[in-house]
């Protein structure tokens, strides 16, 4: 019995020593956490910078906002595009917004403009959505969310040319981002909550 007890103690000590060198991964409230061991063998929990987004309109707009500006409401690029979703002043004037500083200082207004801009684009592209969703162009499945993202990037007119020309007119913005790239990045989000409206109001 003594020999067996001593053997068990030895096994426990070996497992304890080995565990000091094995990083453990935990999940807490859907956020992955990494557990490391410090010198005193006291576990410390460090969050990993991962964000989980649902494939709905909120996930769609947050991802697009991140791609456009890093999610910054006050960012202005060298071409004068402003805010989280990088609108230019000419686009904002369609919605009777002429004060750039007011626009930049209001996250609520920026979110509202993004919604109604998407509603307007969905109305303009309603026929193309009906004709092309489910097909493939340049190897990418055409989806409603991909179309809306591409329209935000290039304008609905260029998206029509892209779709109706079977991908030949692949417009790129000043930074080299193409319609086909946005079609791929933003495909298969559920944007059914965005209703097509011809003249949405702020």
Descriptive notes:
The chain is mainly α. The protein folds into 2 domains: 2-47, no CATH class; 57-185. The protein has 9 helices and 5 strands, in the order H-E-E-E-H-H-H-H-H-E-E-H-H-H. It has helices at residues 2-19, 57-69, 89-93, 100-104, 107-124, 126-132, 144-154, 156-164, 179-185; strands spanning 24-28, 31-37, 43-47, 136-137, 140-141. The strands form 2 sheets. Strands 1-2-3 form a 3-stranded antiparallel β-sheet, with no helix packed on it. Strands 4-5 form a two-stranded antiparallel ribbon. Helix 5 (107-124) packs across helix 7 and helix 7 (144-154) runs antiparallel to helix 9. The longest helix is centred in the N-terminal third of the chain and has 18 residues, at 2-19. The chain starts with a helix and ends in a 17-residue tail after the last helix. The relative contact order is 0.11.
Question: How many β-strand stretches?
Answer: 5
User: Which value, in Å, is the CA radius of gyration?
Assistant: 25 Å
Element-level helix/strand string: HEEEHHHHHEEHHH
Q: What is the overall shape? A: globular
Please describe the topology of this protein.
Elements: H1 2-19, E1 24-28, E2 31-37, E3 43-47, H2 57-69, H3 89-93, H4 100-104, H5 107-124, H6 126-132, E4 136-137, E5 140-141, H7 144-154, H8 156-164, H9 179-185
Antiparallel strand pairs: 1-2, 2-3, 4-5
């Amino acid at each position: 019995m003594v020999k067996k007890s001593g053997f068990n103690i030895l096994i426990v000590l070996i497992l304890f020593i080995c565990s000091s060198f094995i990083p453990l991964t935990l999940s807490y409230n859907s956020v992955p956490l990494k557990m490391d061991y410090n010198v005193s063998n006291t576990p410390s929990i460090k969050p990993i910078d991962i964000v989980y987004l649902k494939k709905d309109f909120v996930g769609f707009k947050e991802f697009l906002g991140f791609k456009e500006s890093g999610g910054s409401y006050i960012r202005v690029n060298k071409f004068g595009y402003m805010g989280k979703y990088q609108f230019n002043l000419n686009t904002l004037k369609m919605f009777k917004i002429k004060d750039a500083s007011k626009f930049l200082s209001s996250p609520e207004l920026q979110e509202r403009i993004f919604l109604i801009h998407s509603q307007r684009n969905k109305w303009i592209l309603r026929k193309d959505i009906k004709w092309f969703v489910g097909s493939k162009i340049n190897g990418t499945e055409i989806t409603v969310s991909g179309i809306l993202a591409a329209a935000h990037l290039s304008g609905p007119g260029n998206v029509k040319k892209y779709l109706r020309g079977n991908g030949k007119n692949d417009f790129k913005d000043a930074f080299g981002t193409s319609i086909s790239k946005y079609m791929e990045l933003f495909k298969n989000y559920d944007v059914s909550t965005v209703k097509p409206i011809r003249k949405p109001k702020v």
